């Protein structure tokens, strides 16, 4: 692997908690896509979580503690990019709100906010990527994760790039913009409601006849994959980055290997 | 109405397994969402109108006292009366006093969520008066002895079959099964009541400061009959419903019909200004407006002011996947869905409705359709924050949060824990997933848990690229 440290923007990759534990392949896919687009990618070791679990549980102090850590770790990069609309929306939109009464941290939060990007939106909107040399055999349907869609305006970018993937057919599902029922801790606090919601989502996925689901947030994808697997539906689940990087050649989430159960 | 929001969990599970309810909800959801989307697409300035409506409301709320005073003066000048009610009880008593004074026996009602909020029907009935709901949906749930489950479609949880049964039992058959026949039957029963009514009570979608008028919109025309045929017309309304001019009202009317039912305009838009005047052909002899505060002025001064922009269109609940899954009754009080999850704790108390702000994925679809751009998810999160500060959050959750914070602010510890998790979960998985995990049964009861690969990304990265 050749490093080209003087060329292109210096990007700090935000390794989300779920990606770090459950799906390292998404991280390597993100690195590949960013490097192929000319970026220098670093993965700072001092990072942990963006703080969203605290923020959405109403524990703003905990969220601020985590936010300060992220700001300190990433503020010297040209960009902070992560493969999750949810975490990146927290950094982009919520950090400045969290520090709105803190004259010391507010400017730093704002400075990080404007250079924080969700991966797909960074590739398309900042780097103007329009091509993909990846190959994927199959028909995929794209699930719009809520934070990416409504928080960051991610809708056309992943579809356009996926449309460039050789061999891949995209088929829209009904209600692709409706929440899958993950919602962070929601899915374990209100499991029955969450199950009903993911069931509706899965029904719409199956109705397309697609053999693959792609999306931009691992929380949603784990929820969808887990439900698909539980009802023995032979549909594979990948993060958009894996497909675009040509690294969707192994098993999908929850282990569905191509052609097996 | 007694609040039962504490039973949200039980009631939601019950609702999910109620087949008739699910059938009714599925049908309604498709209709409302599709029609609204079409209306929004057909009006190029729709997004601009939302922004305008938001700004206009903000301006009104910033000067609410001024507009309310002007409104009161205009009502009085038109020969009407304005009554101020600090809370539900005061509002009930004011209305009861008017009804008793005119010796009311039969009271007709147009749809009014404020009257639900103040528990008006129960109070009137308790005092021996006959209360007849004239909105078809309200009439249906009155027969069923149920509260509304939606703010604009109160009987949306009922299937046609259930309505047929209710009507047959109440009207003595023969059982009708066609919608048109059911509507006709209700019309006939109600006709007679309108003419016998002593008092007609309606809500007020908008109160116009410049003219002292109240405006209601309906699709059945029942509101008109309610307010013009009775001897006394009483309008119940929240203090936040005032708008400066008729012009402003039209801005909101354009948004209301499109957002609520996906119509360009509702079938009837009725403007009432004072009682019957000398040269009027009909109309009530007395015209009263009861302006209800019930927690609203407290909202005005705090971080929940945005909520007072609400024009009660119901779009947020129509687009809410949680409401779509459990229906309105699960929420346990008058206002369901996203707007109800904000309003209920604010009006009835944070701990009376712990679950409502929490039973939300913060997916933001409600805010994206709200005609006055209320940031509902932010307000729900703010309520969680208040619960956290006031120690209403369950102890276990607080402990978990503290542990998470302790670990997550120590990267080495956090990474070590992540590595353990990745190894253990991978070790107990089979074929890439875990089917049962005792401590995570809330997840694994309904879905498999995708298994990690065994090593974390950060571990693998450092192995490949070395320490950074
Ligand atoms: S919060 Fe917005 S969408 Fe919901 S009822 Fe009120 S105005 Fe309508």
UniProtKB/TrEMBL annotation, chain A:
Pfam family, one: CCG
Domain Cysteine-rich: 11-92, 141-224
Domain of life according to the entry: Bacteria
InterPro entries: Cys_rich_dom
Classification via PANTHER family: LACTATE UTILIZATION PROTEIN A, UNCHARACTERIZED PROTEIN YKGE
Record-given protein name: (Fe-S)-binding protein
Organism of this sequence: Aromatoleum diolicum
From TrEMBL, chain B:
Entry keyword Repeat: yes
Pfam entry (one): LUD_dom
UniProt-recorded name of the protein: Iron-sulfur cluster-binding protein
Domain of life of the organism encoding this protein: Bacteria
Boundaries of every 4Fe-4S ferredoxin-type domain copy: 301-331
Keywords of the record: 4Fe-4S, Electron transport, Iron, Iron-sulfur, Metal-binding, Repeat, Transport
Source species of the chain: Aromatoleum diolicum
